[in-house]
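for the recovery benchmark. tokens below, seq after
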């Protein structure tokens, strides 16, 4: 957890919620001022929403607030946004512009959280953090001194705050950046727009970091109670040649180039599509699979035969089940690995 001192009031609560209970019990004297009472601690704990104790996931959340993320297509080939894949390909140390739009209604103090995750269900529980080389670069360079060394994403908003800890796995403690949406421009139909600049400080190919795994940024629109009132997922790849890598991944790019000749050029940002339409790269096969192993001998296991209306609905149910089991594992439940692996096997078979 990092406090840059810019948010003296609201973020104090946010910081308290980033501290787990053990930290509070073990080091309350050093963490809080003398007048911070036990009641204050209890109140701060109560404000933590349910999803903070679960793993992040790739499911978009659509609400009346209508969160949308507009990606500037870029001008100088330092980054490219592929609309069909809904994926950004970007060079290291390139500043990318994103436009956040939403319907503000009467909500106050909204914020946008950006969190990097691995997209494969096999890796989604792992923290995504900077590699050793780029950590060292941060230490010996003055360029990004405002960014904690574990964070890969940098935000240029003056009031952005960096949260999370290096080895955390659950949502509430994962590395993330929270940006207050404090300067929106509301258009004539009541849509608030705010432009935010981002930069990636590590590459997907970094062997002591991402190590070629597939990655995405989860953007969550949050209210004062940290509840998610909108969520979008933006897959990305930080690489040395965005154009080449995009062409390798998108085999239909040549035909789309022909189509684009009929479309007027402009700087209009492209809207992201719902994550249900996202083409997610296939998960990296894991060398160890327990799909065929029997369930442990337990009196508590429960089985139902479930039929869903379509494949996507079934995938959604299975991902929820995966998050439930792996979340329990993170909280200390033993012998749950086989349940997670069985669910993973079912997901892979769809
Ligand atoms: Zn790196």
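predicted aa per position
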């Amino acid at each position: 957890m990092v406090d840059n001192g810019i948010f003296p009031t609201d973020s104090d609560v946010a910081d308290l919620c980033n501290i787990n209970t053990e930290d509070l019990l073990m080091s309350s004297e050093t963490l809080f001022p003398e007048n911070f009472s036990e009641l204050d601690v209890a109140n701060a704990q109560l404000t933590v929403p349910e999803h903070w104790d679960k793993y992040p996931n790739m499911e978009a959340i659509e609400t009346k607030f209508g969160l949308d993320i507009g990606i500037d297509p870029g001008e100088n080939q330092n980054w490219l946004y592929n609309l069909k894949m809904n994926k950004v390909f970007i060079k290291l140390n390139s500043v990318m512009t994103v436009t956040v739009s939403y319907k503000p209604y009467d909500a106050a103090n909204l914020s946008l959280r950006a969190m990097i995750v691995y997209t494969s269900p096999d890796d989604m529980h792992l923290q995504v953090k900077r590699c050793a080389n780029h950590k060292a670069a941060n230490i010996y360079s003055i360029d990004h001194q405002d960014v904690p060394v574990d964070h890969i994403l940098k935000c240029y908003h003056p009031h952005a705050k960096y949260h999370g800890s290096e080895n955390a796995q659950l949502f509430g403690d994962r590395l993330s950046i929270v940006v207050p949406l404090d300067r929106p421009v509301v258009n004539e139909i009541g849509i608030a727009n705010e432009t935010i600049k981002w930069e990636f400080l590590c590459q997907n190919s970094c062997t002591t970091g991402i190590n070629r795994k597939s990655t995405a940024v989860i953007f969550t629109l949050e209210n004062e109670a940290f509840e998610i009132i909108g969520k979008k997922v933006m897959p990305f790849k930080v690489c040395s040649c965005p154009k080449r890598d995009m062409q390798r991944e998108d085999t239909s790019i040549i035909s789309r180039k022909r189509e684009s000749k009929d479309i007027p050029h402009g700087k209009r940002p492209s809207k992201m599509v719902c994550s249900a339409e996202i083409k997610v790269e296939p998960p990296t096969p894991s060398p160890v699979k327990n799909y065929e192993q029997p369930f442990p001998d337990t009196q508590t296991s429960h089985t139902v035969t479930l039929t869903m209306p379509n494949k996507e609905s079934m995938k959604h149910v299975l991902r929820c089940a995966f998050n439930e089991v792996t979340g329990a594992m993170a909280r200390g439940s033993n012998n749950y690995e086989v349940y997670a692996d069985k669910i993973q096997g079912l997901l892979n078979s769809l």
